[in-house]
Automatic annotation (TrEMBL), chains A, B, C, D:
This is methylmalonate-semialdehyde dehydrogenase (CoA acylating). Its EC number is 1.2.1.27. It comes from Vibrio aquimaris. The keyword Oxidoreductase applies. Keywords: NAD, Oxidoreductase. PANTHER family: MALONATE-SEMIALDEHYDE DEHYDROGENASE.
Length: 498, 498, 498, 498
């Protein structure tokens, strides 16, 4: 019988009497565990546990709270192999890729260690005669996070370490596709000293999500996933009057200028487009070549490297790319490719018929490359979330920027050039939240915040980093004046000013 | 024929061929002007003007943009008498009160002068080897503000100076009850050098508001008004995927501790409860007395002062209180008082039958005081927005804080005490956004932000001050690495980390 | 033969062929080790090692450098018993006191972990048309710290963790009285991964200090010690054109208001005056009683508790107070007491003749209390650095503040009161760098900076916390404009402005 | 009889009974006024006035203080013609150059308007259980500034607006060469509402400077001038235990990369080298050409333009360059040129014998250009402070950076290139405080701070901008804990930690 993956509520694992759903190993196509799908009562219990834990946690000094994060960082490092194996088994990504993901997650834990500095409010002496004023960033209460399958270790660490260091308690609903590592990591946090109930994990589907959004105890929602779901969640949370940040999909363009070194660009694009089988919201899926000369050279080099991609199970670290997450996703990517051919895109490398020996039932899909794709094609407009890179040819940087700015998404982008002017024009004018200059995956480090523009993010504050501290706190403004023993003030009927 | 108040679009006043609605002088109860109610075409024209003006304004250096604010501040000061007369005539408030309001509005203009400092992003050298990263706070594009009748000069100045200094262009929809001063001030801004189309003013009602929310060009909505409208606007803007900050109603409590000087408290409460006829979102409408001894003394002193309140037209600066904004509001307040009597509140001073000689048709309402009000009564639960103060008696500070925390609103509050411990307990525990310690109207100065908690504010960022800069900008995170001439990088398929 | 304490240079211990000096166990009065006193060559070798290590360390990304601090924190916690035993043995303080010291030192290591956030510069887009500007906080190079005997574990951790995290390399010259724990801690840092040569420790006396100040390689000097030495060092470093922060002595006053709870005040003063045998720069050595009633009650209570002080070797954790650091210091304190009696101070408890059984040769000195001390007496004017508390009687808070402001030192102070007005008047008006309101030892937490006013600190930036990052870095301001391909600029002979 | 230029003390002009010294019009070589040289009594009177004005000014809320700056900005703009004529007459610079200078000075006034934001301290709730901590940046008291002749309008505005907005009062000792505009501007400040005694101006020489440094009332010294004087002042102020920032000389290099557009570079260098007759601490005086090809092209183009320089009195705005400041300075520059020729530098354009018709007694010196200058020559090592540009030829960017880093000065520098990698290598590695990338005079805007490295600045905080606020304030750290009514604390003898 398959291992059952439960919930972590108030420091205890709950896995009884619940509906369950299979978790697959995408490399074999076989179930490897089953995950409990939380009932309404289970979700309510998690919320209640977080509510109970809140008052004591709120009143714990931030510097004391931070001690948990220091120990947690150490435990994550000590147990990275276990975590990465869980990630690789259920998600499919190559072990070294899981390690990269975890490393970026640990970075967020490091950021959270600095909470005493980050929570500082602003103090003003004498805003008026003998009146002082200051601000405090107080915690919200119980907050919730909903995270996607593609970074099961990292994305939860974008959210809850910052939230709980701000003094909140948390209910996390991870993806039901690869829930094991989340649960394991949450238990490490408790081992590090996080009090019971401060972080609760519930597994489940849309019902659990809706319940979290609707429950009056939950003060804020953080979401990372696809744009349609992000939009729905943002609307539903706002309908309830809550604050929400909902990060959605992407179609990230790389612009290749004529002065770029094509060998370097090709290397960079191979990783950025095909790493993690293209299932990253920061993956490059469009290469915008400036001029045919650049395009021809680029396609030629890419072709050889895409054909040579080493695809196989993530547990073998010599592989460069693992499988897609589900059979359904494999079908979806296949359809996108077929449709693109029909719409006139030039298929340079076709990954549809890849078979990995010994893993014939795995959800593998070969690296795929298109040339001469146009903005009207679906393969250009849609987020494919698979190992498919399309080349679009334009004549100038201005045209490239205009193209990018017209796309509905605005998550990440990059430019390859040596030229200062080109880089500045690009970074200034492009309507995209994260910009790389010769950096193919410009994921900001943990002390800068992460967020896209346009339909890649709903809300005003970005994820992790400084913005997350503002998102997970409420500003309180205090004005203080002490009465002098003798003074008697007259009534001021008019509006007070200096 | 009455003067017609039009719209300011692309630097020109438009008042032709529109539906119009009367604007009243609340002191006389007579119409004093009529305001054009924008058609769909007019609103569209304003949005279009803002869109046209955006690119050039966005690219104007912030320090150059700031020059407009310096001149604008001077013009506001030079023309304060004219502005305050317009405010007083259409709103009804006493001239000195209008001056206080304007002074706080000018403070926001001063804050906006500092935009070069406020727009600074964060720069990190070597986030990885030879990789630098920085953030920019770029403008959103065209944004809109919707403002209430009660501070017609000040609240618009909370919004657009900060928004346009951030590089946005603006469409402002002020209250149709007292629109004249807004239009006058907007023209001063253009006189100060604000380019045409950067600030546009449209008058109108719910249709205009909905059109602003729904139009895809508008990137963000700021709203100040009542909670039901704030909630609706927040929901509708979020439904469209937009960022929104919507400030709503209030029921602000003042806690009077046994050690407080009752003479001082009485003076403070008189201004805070009856100034501007109670029509302030920061007005004190509940006095929470700790113990009967305090309550008895307080009610006794208040009674005499409320009875002695000098009520009359705002144009006479010796008056302490002017009329309510409309006849309908007068009826509403009357009903609240009548209902409270029926529900058992002890009516100490009854303002229902006040007649101001020579202004018999004015919307005047006398200062009203209740004692022994309980949390179950409507007069306690509802925002009355009139000159009505209720006294609630409790036995301890803990009980007072608990009372306040159970109310649906959490805008402002204050405590009167000399005691450090009481003040700290109160400011720490109370779930209210703006807290005064012996400051009856703790409106934060312009360089601290304004915002309530609970159902007093929807959104995560507060109004004006530092939060407004974050609200009116989008964060862009840039990661930069320059290729070295010789170096050839290998492909990194795994997720990049240090 | 006694253990020999050497230097740590470039990752190696050097203890050969040097002059040595005895290190005493102050509880026994016997030598417990001997410390090498660095020759000119040895100091030069340490400076050279730091210089060699600098370029690689400077170019290591801050987030990578921070990893050393995370591990170092863990090692300090794991080895706290060893460290505290070394501290107690050579300094004499009670073990629990040594633990308190170390805990505050570790706090500084935690602060240093946050270096990626702390090193952020400011970025401004469009300071002029198409001109961007930003600032970087770049390291200085090789910097030096000179630390006192009284906090051998903590004060070095105020300095070098922040300095090396900023990218500098360091030469530390600790006190020759209790050097063992410093060397031990430095070795833990290397065990944590600090590259050889980044932190070097040299033991020595005035010659070593002067050599460090004079050597052109050293870019900045941090010093903590007595005011005469601090002043000399500040002058000498400035003579060499270097930046210097030199923290000196103190005479910290506690003001006791009539509303204070005398039991609590007595408890607080006992720890603040006699803890660590009064050898703290933040020790309270003057109690300023407001009115005779307060003074009488206070002296009465203090008398009994001072007489009951449990004095003995620090290795016994049931003791409350250990010995003074040296026989010379014991003589000095004795002389101060004798002189005070001669000058008319009222001696309430006399600690001069204390004998600790079994430790007759130890440098013990009993808790001493004076009443009716006046500002003219030497015991009031001088920093005694021993377990001597004097009571000064004044009539008002204003008089107390005036008294404090006339003293040459301005390190720390505190007030005991419940009254908000008194606390605000005091904290606003008192010319002292660190103020406690009912906090007897207001040592700022690590993320706020430490520093006195007047002759307690020479320089402008305080120790540790945010100021230390500014002290250990040089600001670099970069203005950038990329040429457009076509544009030809005319010459601007006049000074450039917007 | 010549106009007598007095002192401004406590709001009154003092010009009686003092020694006086001639002020020259450098274009005519004739005296145009005489300046009073303050006696010891006069300086003491100025210090005393500042001391008297301090308490009231310190307690004036920053936002109220700022109103003076808003009005002052307006007055500076309204009177710019008068100011610039005074500057041009006594300094000699061309009117348009004086306007550029003044505009940058006004920028500093704008920065000072933002003082309420800039003075914010940091507030931390719960640094320990129920302990809050915050910092305040309190003013120092009376501070002094000593400013040079070359920017008589701008450099004083770097100092005192920031200092007085921080709450200090000020004594300014401007250059005795061109004192008129300083006095005029100070009077505008009083007209703007600056209270008497807050800003005092004394004219004088070295004795006045020394008196200011030595007087115990003066808390801090800001100086801008030549390096030998800066060093002396830094040493003397430090000897007195004071904080000091002393900005000295420069030898600013421009690096010209092979990819730079030589026409643009030539235009940029002409202004940067010869504007204001080279008498700017940010003037470019060394052009470092990478490779002979660049050097040959550059020298060729420069030659023609230098020969064509339009030199004449500054009052004629068609001139490009005015005279040197004094006859002595003319002799000094002449000697440098002569010596350079002797040492083997290749003289391309010789400005020694320039005669301006109608101004034969003026202190004019023609634009001078050297090629093939080597680091060993005096003309390379010394700050000439005249219209002399030298070309040094090197083979690589690395060599250029190494050259710059070996020079004793490190004020400003720039690079001309389109290449991102070159610019980043340069800005990262060069040991210079202000770096321009295609910006020939990288004077930071007012909201970034100004300061050189190495012997171009003594002290740790830079001039104007954020650093100036830290320089002109003392940090006060407050820790606050309110006693609970019941609680009785035990004594803590050990050092307090969390």
């Amino acid at each position: 019988m398959l291992e059952s993956i439960g919930h972590l509520i108030n420091g205890e694992i709950h896995s009884e009497e619940e509906q369950a759903q299979a978790v697959y190993n995408p490399a074999t196509g076989e179930p490897c565990a089953q995950v409990c799908m939380a009932s309404e009562q289970t979700v309510a219990m998690a919320i209640s546990a977080a509510k109970q834990a809140y008052p004591a946690w709120r009143n714990t000094p931030p510097a004391v709270r931070a001690q948990v994060m220091y120990r947690f960082k150490q435990l994550l490092e000590d147990n990275q192999d276990t975590i990465c194996e869980l990630v690789s088994r259920e998600h499919g990504k190559v072990l070294s890729d899981a390690k990269g993901e975890l490393a970026r997650g640990i970075e967020n834990v490091e950021f959270a260690c600095g909470i005493p500095e980050l929570l500082k409010g602003e103090h003003s002496r004498n805003v008026g005669r003998d009146i002082d004023a200051w601000s405090e960033l107080q915690p919200l209460g119980v907050v919730a996070g909903i995270t996607p399958f593609n970074f099961p270790a990292m994305v939860p660490l974008w959210m809850w370490p910052s939230a709980v260091m701000c003094g909140n308690t948390f209910v996390l609903k991870p993806s039901e596709r690869d829930p094991s590592c989340v649960l394991y990591i949450a238990q490490l946090a408790e081992q590090a000293g996080l009090p019971k109930g401060v972080l609760n994990v519930v597994n489940g589907g849309a019902d659990a999500v809706n319940q979290l959004i609707d429950d009056d105890t939950i003060q804020a929602i953080s979401f990372v996933g696809s744009t349609p779901i992000a939009e729905t969640i943002y609307q539903r949370a706002s309908e309830k009057g809550k604050r929400c940040q909902a990060l959605g999909g992407a179609k990230n363009h790389a612009v290749i200028m004529p002065d770029a070194d094509i060998d370097n660009v090709t290397s960079a694009l191979m990783g950025a487009a095909y790493g993690s089988c293209g299932q990253r919201c920061m993956a490059i899926s469009v290469a915008v070549a400036i001029g045919d000369k650049v395009a021809d050279a680029l396609v030629d080099k890419l072709k050889h490297q895409v054909e040579a991609l080493k695809v196989g199970p993530g547990s073998d670290d010599t592989n460069e790319m693992g499988p897609l997450i589900t059979a359904a996703q494999k079908d979806k990517v296949t359809n996108y490719v077929t449709q693109a051919v029909e719409q006139g895109a030039e298929l340079i490398v076709d990954g549809r018929n890849l078979v990995v020996l010994g893993y014939e039932s795995g959800f593998f899909f070969g690296g795929t490359l298109f040339d001469k794709v146009t903005p009207a094609m679906d393969i250009y407009q849609q987020e494919v979330f698979g190992p498919v890179l399309v080349v679009v040819r334009v004549n100038s940087l201005e045209e490239a920027v205009s193209l990018i700015n017209q796309h509905e998404y605005g998550n990440g982008t990059c430019i390859f050039t040596r030229d200062g002017e080109a880089s500045r024009y690009f970074s200034d004018q492009v309507m995209v939240g994260m910009v790389g200059i010769n950096v193919p995956l410009p994921v900001p480090v943990s002390y800068h915040s992460f967020g896209g523009w346009k339909r890649s993010l709903f809300g005003d504050l970005h994820a992790y980093g400084p913005d997350s501290v503002r998102f997970y706190t409420r500003r309180k403004a205090i004005s203080q004046r002490w009465p002098t023993g003798e003074a008697k003030d007259g009534t001021l009927f008019s509006f007070p000013s200096l």
